[in-house]
């Protein structure tokens, strides 16, 4: 936790916060601050700054706040991600948030098992929690927009072209031999497929919608590794 992320309900006054639960336990166990020390803090959806410790014990953490810094800007990037295995989903959502992705679309695909959509990991509460972890890691306060697209064809045919308007659309797909472009028209929409990749019909639909193929080379990467590599190449 590189940033103590404050929620609106934590504020007992404009410049005074009262925290319990996970964040209290983390500060006590990891930061090991004492009264009078300062922590990096930020208000969800608002500014960042410093929080001076007024109280820290087993019951609560109280902070005097000075919030005078703007959060880092989001990347002009929409990530269209075929829903990964539940064990990977948490890492991907947190990683995309920490990288500064502005919008995340979790999309169905042929190789996405139906059971993935029924997983507790897909519930709003869990996805929101993973995005909060990503903000804490990156020292950011602004959540990405999150969209669940359960039907591939309506999203690709009706919504994807609007996302691509005036920008660049890319489809990560092995074997195309197409390197990452150097000059991109923002905003950028990047589609990453499921384990095993998109099927041919999906590839053709994505190309028809306006995406261009993108190949990271001969190595087979984990989805979260591919995301970090692609963001590094594109931005």
Structural class designation: alpha/beta
Number of domains: 2
The level 1 CATH classification of the largest domain is Alpha Beta
Helix content: 25-40%
User: What is the name of the CATH topology of the largest domain?
Assistant: Alpha/beta knot
What gap, in angstroms, lies between the N and C termini?
A: 25 Å
Point out poorly predicted stretches: none
The arrangement of helices and strands along the chain is: EEEHEEEEHEHHEHEEHEH
Strand numbers in spatial order across the main sheet: 1-4-5-6-3-2
Please, could you describe this protein's structure?
- This protein has helices at residues 21-31, 86-99, 114-118, 124-138, 152-164, 200-209, 223-234, and strands spanning 4-6, 11-13, 16-19, 38-43, 48-56, 61-69, 75-82, 101-107, 145-149, 168-172, 188-192, 212-214.
- By secondary structure, it is an alpha/beta fold.
- It has 2 domains: 4-69, Hypothetical PUA domain-like, domain 1 (Ribosomal Protein L25, Chain P, Beta Barrel), CATH 2.40.240.20; 75-234, 3-Layer(aba) Sandwich (Alpha/beta knot).
- The strands form 2 sheets. It has a 6-stranded mixed β-sheet with strand order 1-4-5-6-3-2.
- Strand 7 (75-82), helix 2 and strand 8 (101-107) form a beta-alpha-beta unit.
- Helix 2 (86-99) crosses helix 4 (124-138), helix 2 runs parallel beside helix 7 and helix 5 runs parallel beside helix 6 (200-209).
- The longest helix has 15 residues, at 124-138.
- The two termini are 25 Å apart.
């Amino acid at each position: 936790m590189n940033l103590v992320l404050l929620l609106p309900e934590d504020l007992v006054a404009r410049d005074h916060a009262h925290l319990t639960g996970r964040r209290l336990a983390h500060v006590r166990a990891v930061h090991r601050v004492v009264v009078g020390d300062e922590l990096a803090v930020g208000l969800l959806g608002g500014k960042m700054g410093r929080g001076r410790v007024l109280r820290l014990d087993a019951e609560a953490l109280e902070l005097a706040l000075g919030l005078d810094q703007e959060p880092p800007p989001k990347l002009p990037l929409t990530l269209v991600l075929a829903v990964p295995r539940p064990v990977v989903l948490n890492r991907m959502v947190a990683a995309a948030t920490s990288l500064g992705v502005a919008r995340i679309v979790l999309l169905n695909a042929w190789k996405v098992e139906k059971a993935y959509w029924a997983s507790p990991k897909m519930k709003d509460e869990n996805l929101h929690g993973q995005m909060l972890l990503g903000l804490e890691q990156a020292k950011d306060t602004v959540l990405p927009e999150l969209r669940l697209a359960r039907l591939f064809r309506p999203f690709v045919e009706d919504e994807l072209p609007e996302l691509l308007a005036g920008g660049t659309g890319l489809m990560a797909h092995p074997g195309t031999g197409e390197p990452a472009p150097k000059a991109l028209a923002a905003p950028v929409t990047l589609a990453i497929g499921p384990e095993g990749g998109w099927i041919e019909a999906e590839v053709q639909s994505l190309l028809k919608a306006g995406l261009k193929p993108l190949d990271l080379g001969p190595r087979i990467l984990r989805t979260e590794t591919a995301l970090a590599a692609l963001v590094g190449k594109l931005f």
